[in-house]
Amino acid sequence: MTHPSEPLAGSFPCRFCATPLEHPVVDLGMSPLCESYLTADLLDARESFYPLKVWICHRCLLVQINDYVSAEDIFTEYAYYSSFSTSWLQHASDYVDAMTDRLGLNEESFVVELASNDGYLLQYFVERHIPCLGIEPSVNVSQAAVAKGVPTDTSFFGRVKAEQMASAGQLADLVLGNNVLAQVPDLNDFVAGIPRILKPSGTVTIEFPHAVRMIEENQFDTIYHEHFCYFSLASAEAIFAHHGMTIFDVEELWTHGGSLRIYARHTADESRPLTQRLLDLRQREIDGGYRDVATYAQFEEQVRETKRALLETLSDLKRRGKTVVGYGAPGKGNTLLNYCGIRTDFIDFTVDRNPYKQGRYLPGTHIPIHAPERIDEVKPDYVLILPWNFKTEILEQLAYAREWGAHFIVPIPTASIV
Fold first, then answer.
1. Are 384 and 326 in contact, with CB atoms under 8 Å apart?
2. Beta bridge partners of 228
3. Per-residue pLDDT reduced to its tens digit, 47-77
4. Res 146: pLDDT
5. Which of 124, 149, 307, 326 is the most exposed place for a label (fewest CB within 10 A)?
């Protein structure tokens, strides 16, 4: 692995291997916590902003940010409910079908999901009468899961929790985690707990946005304080190997702009050899230069150009007197809007299907959030799709807006009008 000749000193050690971080990837300036939606009475109160700067470890290739707020402060009360996306629910249902068939899961099996949110996925195991348990730290979303009949333990997962579960005989045939690995500040504590609750022949599947896709497609808005790490296959393999697990297979998914689903087992379980698609992806990362930190250093200029293109598009529309509103209030949208300096001078409001967010305001930008019906009432000329990773689903939902000639703006990888 090579690195630039004049590294910059980081302020903290690598979350995995403790190597001092010296190589910046991108600096997105100061930003609020992306899920800290504001009520009207807080609009004039002091709001906290934190640095959003990304580094890469030249030793293990883990891309990461520093943490300025504890995980407890972020996740104890959380605004993200997985079940408000139809396509995400379908993704979860398809996963349950595939894993049930692939692993032969039945009423004698046991499935554990780490960061199970509102039961969006485990509900499908419950329907199949396959015993399962969700581990979810956020009180509000875990209560929603329990209301669906999904057994849920409201707690953070790590070594201690894993030992408690193992002592209680809660060993799993399948341990899964979707979009949680990036949100774990103590990465080693979390991953070390997984083999402790995994049966000797059990399987682990973990999904996370692929750092390679993030860089290749300018997906800088997937960076926010709640996401502490960004993984390539190379960095994930190093982390799991250190904790006694081998990644033996991988799938490339459409979710979140391009994710990986890794399959892991106990290293001692040699019954499942490495698949060809894992070997192929490993080689593609090598061929693409993603074992070289200099490749990551090119990301910042790409991000700046994406910002310029979006601001030019919006500025042109507003000068021509066009009305522009947003669709969605995702975490990624808050990174995008704050980094680009887009407020109500560019976007009148945004809408979201999640009732928790309706009537609140976006952090930092203070753009109001309404129910989706507001778009039909206002009939805007343009709609900026903030959760662009669900653009196909959203364009179908907003097909009626074409009746009055509305157009849609997709900001990533560069601003385009559809």
1. yes
2. none
3. 999 999 999 999 999 999 988 776 555 555 5
4. 94
5. 149
Residues of the chain with pLDDT under 50: 1-9, 78-79
Q: In the structure encoding, which two tokens stand for residue 227, read together?
A: 């996401």
* 8 A C-beta contact, residue 231 and residue 296: no
Helix axes 299-319, 331-340, angle to 10 degrees: 80
Helix (H) or strand (E) holding 52: strand 50-56
DSSP string, 401-417: GGGGT-EEEE-SSS-EE
In three state form, how does the secondary structure of 23-35 look? EEEEEEEEECCCC
| DSSP code for 400 | G
Q: How far apart are CA 228 and CA 269, in angstroms?
A: 30
pLDDT for position 121 = 96
CA–CA distances in Å: residue 84 to residues 79, 80, 135, 227: 11, 9, 20, 21
Q: Report the distance separating Cα 269 and Cα 303, nearest Å.
A: 43
Rounded-to-integer distance, Cα 236 and Cα 255, Å:
18
b (16+ CB within 10 A) / e for 360-388: bbbbbbebbbbeeebbeeeebbbbbbbbb
- pLDDT for position 213: 94
Between strands 63-65 and 111-114, the pairing is: unpaired
* Complete DSSP assignment for 132-192: EEEE---HHHHHHHHHTT--EE-S--SHHHHHHHHHTT--EEEEEEES-GGG-SSHHHHHH
CA–CA gap between residue 357 and residue 368 (Å, rounded): 10
Enter the tokens of residue 99.
């894993």
Question: What whole-number distance in Å separates Cα of residue 257 and Cα of residue 390?
Answer: 9
Look up residue 276 and give its two tokens. 């060809």
φ/ψ (deg, to 5) at 149? 90, 20
Which pLDDT belongs to residue 67? 82
The 3-state DSSP class for residue 46 equals coil
pLDDT at 71: 59
- Dist. CA 149–CA 188, nearest whole Å: 31
